[in-house]
Design brief:
- The protein is an alpha/beta fold.
- The chain has four domains: about 5-75 and about 80-100, 3-Layer(aba) Sandwich (GIY-YIG endonuclease), CATH 3.40.1440.60; about 130-310, Rossmann fold, CATH 3.40.50.300; about 320-360 and about 420-555, P-loop containing nucleotide triphosphate hydrolases (Rossmann fold), CATH 3.40.50; about 565-655, Alpha-Beta Plaits.
- The chain is built from 17 helices and 28 strands.
- The protein has a seven-stranded parallel beta sheet with strand order 8-9-7-10-11-6-12, sandwiched between helices.
- About 45% of the residues are buried.
- Bound molecules: adenosine-5'-diphosphate and zinc ion (ZN) (2 copies).
Length: about 650
């Protein structure tokens, strides 16, 4: 049957499709890219439906259909439609994010003929025999091949989670199906890529992340689309790879905040992956040492199945974790005598230590004690951070830089000081105290490019550093065999942060960074400097008891009415003037009250905590409900009204569903 009208999704910020006329198309063309006139120019869109009639008059004639490329499959279209609906984001923009840039411009890399589907047999070289818990985890997931089932694989770093993923991928490939594996930051985990490639020499493994060249990204996308790719390994973006023979999804470090995109389409790749597993009827494994409280909650309620790996596969012992009470001690450059002594011992034994401070720069602020002047960013509601290494003040939110002034800009006082402590200052203090030690700072300043980062990693691996000073960059996924001590300084602030997710993040960060020590034959020790040594969070860390911590957090969240016990949506607005943003939200709130169903509550518009960034002022409005369907239904009606609401020209707004940051 031939149709005369096409519905096309285009990359424009409007929540609608665009109709065009054609001479003849068939159902086969749904999912194909097409060139269409738009405004005075031309755009490439995706055909999402065919029709006989249109509610719009004077339709334009569509251009060429790009038939050299296989059509995007129906399940991929359904996936993007789900994201558009769930996150209230225009479908064309969702697709523009999901498609590689070259395809979006209509440029097609040479597409090879699809090879016949191959059953990949592995040479199976001397693989380690699985530990009993690993074996039962593999068996439990494999029993659900071919249908939807969600698993939480909970196991400390080094407990052999990756080995479980690899065995499951092996079985998936043996059935002639594709595996999708999502990881938080591929730039930080090239080891995983090579581990996967080495394990499956006969399989076609493609990476998908934003750091790749455009050509490589398109080739991977097309290989996935035409079914040649066996394994797709990537960051959150990879969740949109079309996979016609998908058999398994793995999300490693599922708690990691980088699975949530913080701009444009604010999607959670983990949540989208769960939806996709359901839609494609395949099992999904969410792995972590410190699962997100949402996932842990689902595992407790039976919605996900819990698989536990309770001990490390190689190192026999977990590192010992101990708090150092700093209340009665005068610290030396922020460090206690116990920590300094422990560092001394490691130096004497030529083992490595890591001092963890999650704040880069020299000091968080420069201030004048005479008049109270502090280094503020002129564009943000934030302080300029002192970077002594290059004699700059720098804003960590907008990148603004200034030279460090010689005297106070307020009163001319020459005696102005950096206050507080960042990694550079710690590095300086350690160098003064241990003049013979080789000290290496690892943060986003010293590892500003992948090349520098690789060089730093090599220096550490080759044992050419004695003391590492680092931020959370060092926390993830690296094995440093000679590292036996981790000192944590400056962590207390997160215990009492206004953000209700701060303790969850702190726990997982400290667990991860602590997991860097004692990974091989040498036992590890973690020393946490704190003024709150009896805080339940630290006590749970000392006991390596994630469930205890998680259950107490869930108790607090339930009492306070926070996620996962409610579902939340934020409407944010930003403008040159905070008043404009607030005024917009007030009107939006009035509209919302007209539509508000039973069981959905609405708060008042408020300025964001960091209310000014890059000279834009920001405010937000929260709606929440215990019922996701009720919230979703309300949201759809509300957002369609927001598109019609008048706003000053410089105002931008967006919706954030299941927001992580407030
Ligand atoms: P995780 O992903 O939980 O951090 P990995 O799968 O990377 O753990 O395993 C940690 C280390 O233990 C790796 O060097 C791995 O090769 C090894 N390992 C995993 N499972 C086993 C096993 N059953 N027997 C021996 N070594 C194992
Ligand atoms: Zn002054
Ligand atoms: Zn700034």
């Amino acid at each position: 049957m031939n149709f005369r009208i096409l519905r096309v999704a285009l990359d424009v910020p409007l929540p609608r499709l665009f109709d065009y006329t054609v001479d003849a198309v068939t159902q086969e063309d749904v999912g194909r890219c097409i060139r269409v006139p738009f405004g005075n120019g031309e755009k490439i869109g995706v055909i999402v439906a065919l029709a006989d009639t249109s509610e719009h008059a004077k339709l334009k004639q569509a251009g060429e259909i790009l038939r050299a490329l296989p059509a995007l499959p129906a399940d991929w279209l359904a996936l993007t439609e789900f994201c558009s609906r769930y996150y209230q984001h225009p479908l064309g923009e969702v697709m523009a994010l999901a498609l590689p840039p070259q395809l979006r411009r209509g440029k097609l890399p040479a597409v090879r003929k699809a090879k016949p589907i191959q059953v990949i047999e592995q040479a199976a070289p001397q693989l380690p025999e699985l530990l009993p818990e690993q074996a039962s985890a593999v068996a439990a997931v494999a029993a659900d091949f071919g249908r939807y089932a969600a698993f939480l694989l909970h196991g400390v770093t080094g407990s052999g989670k990756t080995e479980v993923y690899l065995r499951l991928i092996e079985q998936t490939l043996a059935q002639g199906r594709q595996a999708l594996m999502l990881v938080p930051e591929i730039a930080l985990t090239p080891q995983l890529e090579s581990r996967v490639a080495a394990r499956f020499p006969n399989a076609l493994v493609f990476s998908a992340h934003s750091g790749m060249t455009e050509g490589a990204r398109s080739r991977g996308f097309i290989a996935a689309l035409d079914g040649r790719a066996d394994i797709v390994l990537g960051t959150r973006l990879a969740v949109f790879s079309p996979l016609p023979r998908l058999g398994l999804i793995v999300v490693d470090e599922e708690h990691d905040a980088s699975f949530k995109q913080q701009e444009g389409l604010r999607y959670s790749a983990r949540d989208v992956a769960v939806w996709r597993a359901h839609q494609c009827a395949v099992p999904i494994v969410l792995g972590s040492a410190t699962p997100s409280l949402e996932t842990f909650f689902h595992a407790g309620s039976g919605r996900y199945r819990l698989l536990e790996l309770s001990r490390r596969a190689v190192a026999l012992e977990m590192p010992t974790v101990r708090c150092i009470d700093t209340r009665r001690e005068k610290l030396q450059d922020g460090m206690s005598s116990a920590l300094l002594a422990a560092l001394e011992v490691r130096l004497a034994r030529s083992e490595q230590s890591l001092v963890f401070l999650n704040r880069r720069g020299y000091a968080p602020v420069l201030a004048c004690p005479a008049c109270g002047w502090v280094s503020r960013c002129s564009r943000c509601a934030a302080n300029l951070v002192v970077h002594l290494a290059d004699r700059r003040l720098r804003c960590h939110h907008c990148g603004l830089e200034e030279i460090i002034p010689k005297h106070c800009p307020g009163c001319g006082n020459l005696d102005i000081h950096p206050f507080g402590r960042g990694t550079q200052r710690l590095e300086e203090a350690l160098a003064a105290r241990f003049p013979n030690a080789r000290i290496l700072r690892v943060d986003r300043d010293s590892a500003s490019t992948p090349k520098k980062w690789q060089a730093l990693l090599e220096t550490i691996h080759e044992g050419r550093a004695d003391i590492l000073v680092g931020t959370q960059m060092l926390a993830k996924g690296h094995d440093f065999p000679r590292l036996t001590l981790v000192g944590v300084v400056g962590a207390d602030a997160a215990l009492f942060a206004a953000d209700f997710r701060a303790p969850e993040r702190l726990f997982s960060q400290l667990m991860q960074v602590g997991g860097r020590s004692g990974r091989a034959a040498l036992p590890g020790e973690v020393l946490i400097q704190t003024e709150y040594p009896t805080h339940p969070l630290y006590q749970a860390l000392e006991a390596h008891d994630y469930p205890r911590f998680a259950n107490s957090q869930l108790g607090e969240r339930r009492a306070a009415g926070f996620p996962p016990f409610v579902f939340q949506v934020l409407l944010r607005a930003e403008a040159r003037q905070l008043d404009d943003a607030l005024a917009f939200l007030k009107v939006a709130a009035a509209t919302a009250r007209e539509l508000l169903p039973e069981g959905v509550s609405l708060y008042d518009p408020v300025p964001m905590r960091l209310y000014r960034v890059m000279a834009l002022e920001r405010a937000q409005l929260l709606a929440e409900s215990m019922s996701r369907p009720a919230l979703q239904a309300f949201l759809a009606r509300w957002v369609s009204r927001l598109y019609l609401q008048k706003a000053p020209r410089d105002l931008r707004w967006h919706i954030d569903v299941d927001p992580l940051e407030f």
